[in-house]
Structure formats: structure tokens, C-alpha cells
Design a protein that fits this description.
Layout: H1 17-32, H2 37-49, E1 53-56, H3 63-73, E2 78-82, H4 90-93, E3 94-99, E4 104-109, E5 116-120, H5 127-139, E6 141-144, E7 147-150, E8 156-161, H6 174-177, E9 182-185, H7 191-210, H8 221-232, H9 238-250, E10 265-267, H10 271-287, H11 295-306, E11 311-312, H12 314-318, H13 323-333
Parallel strand pairs: 1-8, 1-9, 2-5, 5-8
Antiparallel strand pairs: 3-4, 6-7, 10-11
Helix pairs in contact: 1-2, 2-10, 8-10, 9-10, 9-11, 10-11, 11-13
């Protein structure tokens, strides 16, 4: 059974070995993370587009499980960081340890020195800790004292936010949210899927009682590099590139597409959004086995790419306008090539 993310009948008839690896990876994640196909696809897109994602959803929706399963299937290391109000930047980056025997300092690496990092409940940590993480995400390096250390490749951060409890939290500023490639929102699974989740939980409990399941790597670092190169070489027609740019520009001047949209946006999406939408649309097309980008790829990713990059006006919030609704309005009004 073909994964919904990769179809051999769409565009590309022959699937190469790298695409086959991603097909198997997607199938494995679908079998182990039930009821969250949207999250799985966005994780793979972030991996291909070399970006980071912010996931928002209620507790217990397999956010941690999804990235942990991904970490078990690719070449590299995974680490989970639980963000708390008493966390310090050095708890992420690492610190210099004094050695009294010779009067020198030895750098002890922090948990950021892993390939996949889960920043659990990022909004529970103060601004200094959030800034340390976001600097590492943007620069792919950290600085301790006078020394700069490169982070490993690949390097992907998945940060989570709990939308239920906001008391005692530190919301991420809009300028820092822009560092995330995607802002993904997930919801509860349907009833039939939840039945399957119960069966899966019982099976895993039995496996843990018998023996630890061995890690089987399905995707090597070289294969990931090759996949990213293929994504960058995907064909994007000039008229579709113009459509993509017009969609991002419309978030800065929405009044061009209707007087009812005037005054709704304080700050629109930055050029970083154009880059993110381009990379993500290419990745989605590649995952579906196509060698070209279609309008549906741009439209499907527009919400996750743009929702955290828009600062709506007071009038928009008073009228009940959300970022998703605004993006939906723009998609419906901008002509598709």
C-alpha cells in the first residue's frame, strides 16, 4: 500500500532509491503514529526543507512520539528537552567546566548537540532560554565564552506549545516565531483511529515486557543529503513562482484584494516566508512523487508557513479575524495560474 505522501503514479513514474527510503519511512511513521498524518507530513517536509517546526496541540496527541519515531529511523541522535521556568541557557548550549588539575577549561556539550531536538513546551521557559534555542536554530552554532561551536548536520528542532494552559508561560515574540519554518496545529484523532491507538498501546506494552525493540535505521545522512538536492532541483514554473510571491506580498497589502481586508494586518510575512513556502512546496511535491510543483502544493503549505508570521491589527482581532481565515481569504481571491 502506497503512502499518501509518495505516489509512484503522480508525475514521476520511476521512483529512485532515495524516494523509496522516504516512502518506507513515511509508511513506518504512519503505522507507529496513528491519527496524525498532517504532523507526519510536516515533519518530513521540515526534514527535506532543512527547517524547524513549531507544533501546537493538546497534550497526548503523539507530538513527542512522532519526532522520537523519526529519530529512530534516521542516522543521527535524538534528545528531548523539557522546558521549565527555571531552565538556563547553559542547560541547552553546554558550558565550560574548570579543571583544577591544570587550570584549564573543558567544554561540556549541552543537549542541542543532537540531530533531532524536541523542545517540549517551549513557552514555559523564559526569554533568555528561548533566545538561546532560536539562535542555534538560525545560525546552526552556539557561542560559549569566546568559542563558537558548530551544531551537527542535519539539525532539526521541533518545539511544542500547549494551547490549553497559558498561566505562567512566556509566549514567543512574533519576531522569534519567524525563525520557525512551519507552525503546525494538530487536533484529536477520530473514534476509529483511537481504537487503533488503544490496540497499538497494548501491543507495545507487551513488547516492552518481553524485550527492547532494536533500532533499525532506514535513512542515512547521505540519502537525506541526496533527497534535499533533488528537492531543490524540482521544477517550479515562472507563473507559479509569481503566484507564490503574490500570496506572500498580499499579507502585507491585503487591501489590494478587497476593501474589507484593509487595516487587518499590522505586519505581514517577511521574505523568509517566501523562501519557506518555496522550499516546503517543493518538498511536498517531491514526497508525492512529482518532479514539478503544483498550485495545490503552495496552497496546502500556505497556512502552516504564514500563520505565525502575521501580526493582525486590533480591529482584526475585535472582528474575530484569525490568521488562518485571512490566508484562506487571500487564497480564494488571488488568481491561480
Amino acid at each position: 500500500m502506497l503512502s499518501p505522501f509518495i505516489s509512484a503514479t503522480e508525475g514521476m513514474i520511476v521512483m529512485d532509491s532515495v524516494q523509496q527510503c522516504f516512502r518506507e519511512l513515511a509508511s513506518h511513521l504512519e503505522a507507529e503514529v496513528l491519527g496524525q498524518p498532517h504532523l507526519i507530513e510536516r515533519l518530513l517536509i521540515a526534514l527535506l526543507a532543512d527547517g524547524h517546526l513549531l507544533v501546537e496541540g493538546a497534550p497526548g496527541l503523539a507530538k513527542t512520539r512522532a519526532i522520537r519515531q523519526l529519530g529512530e529511523q534516521i542516522e543521527g541522535s535524538f534528545h528531548r528537552i523539557q522546558f521549565t521556568p527555571d531552565l538556563l541557557p547553559a542547560d541547552l548550549t553546554g558550558t565550560d567546566i574548570y579543571r583544577p588539575q591544570d587550570g584549564s577549561f573543558l567544554f561540556r556539550q549541552g543537549p542541542l548537540f543532537h540531530n533531532l531536538v524536541l523542545a517540549d513546551e517551549i513557552n514555559r521557559a523564559p526569554a533568555k532560554v528561548q533566545s538561546a534555542l532560536l539562535e542555534a536554530m538560525a545560525e546552526r552554532q552556539i557561542t560559549v565564552g569566546q568559542q563558537t561551536y558548530r551544531l551537527p548536520e542535519p539539525f532539526l528542532v521541533m518545539a511544542t506549545q500547549n494551547p490549553i494552559e497559558q498561566e505562567g508561560t512566556y509566549p514567543l515574540p512574533e519576531a522569534q516565531l519567524d525563525r520557525f519554518l512551519l507552525h503546525v496545529r494538530i487536533d484529536y484523532p477520530p473514534l476509529e483511529t483511537e481504537r487503533l491507538i488503544l490496540a497499538l498501546a497494548r501491543r507495545e506494552a507487551g513488547e516492552r515486557c518481553e524485550a527492547e525493540v532494536a533500532k533499525s535505521v532506514q535513512l542515512s545522512a547521505l540519502e537525506l543529503h541526496q533527497a534535499r538536492q533533488q528537492v531543490l532541483q524540482l521544477h517550479l514554473a515562472e507563473n507559479l513562482e509569481e503566484y507564490l510571491l503574490q500570496l506572500v506580498l498580499a499579507t502585507r497589502q491585503p487591501e489590494r484584494y478587497g476593501d474589507d481586508l484593509a487595516g487587518l494586518v499590522e505586519y505581514g510575512a517577511s521574505p523568509r516566508a517566501s523562501i519557506a513556502l518555496d522550499r516546503c512546496a517543493r518538498s511536498r511535491a517531491w514526497l508525492r512523487g512529482r518532479d514539478y510543483v503544483a498550485p495545490e502544493d503552495i496552497q496546502a503549505l500556505a497556512f502552516d508557513v504564514l500563520r505565525h508570521r502575521l501580526v493582525l491589527s486590533y480591529e482584526a482581532e475585535a472582528a474575530g479575524m484569525s490568521a488562518d481565515r485571512l490566508v484562506s481569504e487571500l487564497i480564494s481571491r488571488i488568481p491561480v495560474p
